[in-house]
Write the structure tokens for this entry.
Amino acid sequence: MKKILVFIIFFIFSYFSFGKNYIAEIAKVYSNDNLVIGTTSRLKFSSEVSIIKENGNIQDFFQLEINSNNSFINLAELKITNISGTKVGNKIYFKNTTNGEGLQEIKILVEGEFVFNWLNQSREKENIKIGYINSSINPVYLNLDTKELKPIHSLKIKVLNNMNLGKGVAGEKLSTKESGEPANLSIEGEENKSINIYIPSSTTIKNYNNDTLTVNIKFRDNNSQELIRRLSANSKNTYRVGNDGRVITKDILIDGETQTKKTSRGVYRGFFTVKVEYLD
């Protein structure tokens, strides 16, 4: 009797699927708000974006899918509208809506919010995943350069000297131009930008008995409550700080004057608010 040897051979097939990364090209980013470096945490925006691929297969589609795992910039509240291509549900097909022909490029309007984590900023550009083509192995990234958002440095105000009206005789006037010292401020901000500085026309000071005096205040430069300064390193009383485009303008003097009463006694104290904003 013959013995039959049976060999069982197992074939193992490994299938590898190779995907491709796509970069969505940004035409322009629009926002009504300023991106303030180190300060702005969320910024509403809209942008026209082009997604280009290698052929015009009408079965190919773009699917929105947000990835919020970036260290510096992420997206939130995202909404897309097709400018070209055919939208079916949440998918935008590379298909001409007029003649049904395939497209190699579709354009979409992207609206939402940029979310910034300034503690993790390591570069000016960030690749942000916004979706995929056909499958998640073909991700589409928005290549954002923060320079397109025209970021600005935050404005910083420093009080170098508080206003001091000095000492005088009850019933007479006190003025920083005669008996006291003006308030002295410096402001740090973005180089080559203009700033507008505002102060109130008057403020109230009180003594320990809550007796009040009205102090009229104005900038020494122009005897007004509004002052414009240009943050240029070549301007008067300005100088550059570091190498990242910051400039400090100094010697912003604010004068005060008050008419005391014959009953005025003791030390009077008060405060006022200085507001600063960029003009451009």
Summary: Confidence is low (pLDDT under 50) at residues 1-17.
